[in-house]
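Design job #97: recover the sequence.
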């Protein structure tokens, strides 16, 4: 089921939670709403759900006539219970006094008699769902006898029991530890692909959004900053906010004169006009070398080293740097350079980014990689 939002806005008294926005979600897509606290993610999700009404009528001299379509159906005024939506919330919200089986069956057994499947069908469907979330042997347990991750899998099964067209998840893994989160992300992706529903989830975790989503909607202050596939977002951010929000950033500010940017005793050849410039780099866009090159002189001291999974994070300081830089290296490069704390190295830039006041970004290469 595709979802189309047109001209949707929301104000709470004097607070504008959402400025007028449009959003198209394709059938079968898994879309993440990502943004800092207060950016409007939950409000947008609740409007899609029908738990919150978008603004109507004229406000501040503008006409707000937002519409929501699920496929060809205009659901703007359709009640939440008739929108065929499954929900998963951060706090599992399972019924404590009901077994896992009864929790998953709840939506089905509560249906009016004419819509309710037979008890045999309900049993089959619930067992199939519990099998999908690999909890079939837990059917008779109570929520308190399950781990957080297991409870959230029950929530997922419960949300899917009514075969929703759309699954909405609000920080579904927010209360779980890192490893369980990772596992549940794989679960969700797998179930989503197998069952083919359309999903929208809210998160403030960049990694989660990038790993799980087909497309990510990046929000700030009630506005959509960018909608793109994770890879595009990371490589071609629409503006500085998106760039900074999506990962660690190293900053180099200096004066450019005749193609050389200078900052203290640091120098870098750049293809930029004369004047003050600010370049931004991701940690993996730095390269460390033993000697400076002809075009780049960025000396720094290694102040910390931390192996994190498949890479090594190296912190660098220098007199010309107001705050430390972070470089990420592959283990092989780290070993080849024999890097130690206190060592003096030279930084080269594989790539840098620059954001003007206008929204278009500019990226440059300082080094052929
Ligand atoms: N019921 C409400 N009454 C008044 N203001 C509200 C209400 N709900 C949300 N807001 C305001 O609307 C803005 C957006 O809130 P929203 O919960 O959508 O943000 P969010 O991005 O989901 O944040 P978080 O990640 O902290 O949940 C905030 O300024 C919030 O204070």
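Job complete. Output follows.
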């Amino acid at each position: 089921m595709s979802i189309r939002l047109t001209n949707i806005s929301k104000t709470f008294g004097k607070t504008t939670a959402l400025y007028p926005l449009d959003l198209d979600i394709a059938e079968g897509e898994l879309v993440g709403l990502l943004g800092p606290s207060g950016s409007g993610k939950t409000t947008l999700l609740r409007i899609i759900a029908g738990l919150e009404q978008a603004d109507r009528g004229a406000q501040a001299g503008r006409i707000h006539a937002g519409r929501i379509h699920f496929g060809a159906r205009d659901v703007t005024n359709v009640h939440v219970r008739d929108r065929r939506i499954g929900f998963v919330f951060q706090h599992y919200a399972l019924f404590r006094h009901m077994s896992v089986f009864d929790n998953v069956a709840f939506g089905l057994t509560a249906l009016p008699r004419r819509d309710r499947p037979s008890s045999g069908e309900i049993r089959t469907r619930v067992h199939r769902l519990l099998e999908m979330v690999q909890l079939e042997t837990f059917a008779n347990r109570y929520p308190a006898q399950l781990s957080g991750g297991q409870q959230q899998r029950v929530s997922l099964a419960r949300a899917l029991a009514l075969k929703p067209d759309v699954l909405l998840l609000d920080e579904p893994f927010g209360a779980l530890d890192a490893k369980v989160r990772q596992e549940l992300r794989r679960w969700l992706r797998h179930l989503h692909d197998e069952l083919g529903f359309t999903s929208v989830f809210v998160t403030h975790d960049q990694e989660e959004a990038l790993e799980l989503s087909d497309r990510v909607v990046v929000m700030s202050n009630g506005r959509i900053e960018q909608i793109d596939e994770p890879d595009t977002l990371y490589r071609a951010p629409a503006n500085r906010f998106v760039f900074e929000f999506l990962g660690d950033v190293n900053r180099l500010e200096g004066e450019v004169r005749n193609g050389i940017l200078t900052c203290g005793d640091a120098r870098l050849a750049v293809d930029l006009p004369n004047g003050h410039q600010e370049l931004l780099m991701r940690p993996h866009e730095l390269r460390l070398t033993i000697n400076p090159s002809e075009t780049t002189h960025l000396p720094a001291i290694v102040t910390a080293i931390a192996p994190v999974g498949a890479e090594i994070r190296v912190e660098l300081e220098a007199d010309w740097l107001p705050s430390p830089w972070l470089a990420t290296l592959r283990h092989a490069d780290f070993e080849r350079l024999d890097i130690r704390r206190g060592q003096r190295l030279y930084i080269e830039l594989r790539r840098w980014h620059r954001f003007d006041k206008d929204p278009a970004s500019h990226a440059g290469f300082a080094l052929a990689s």
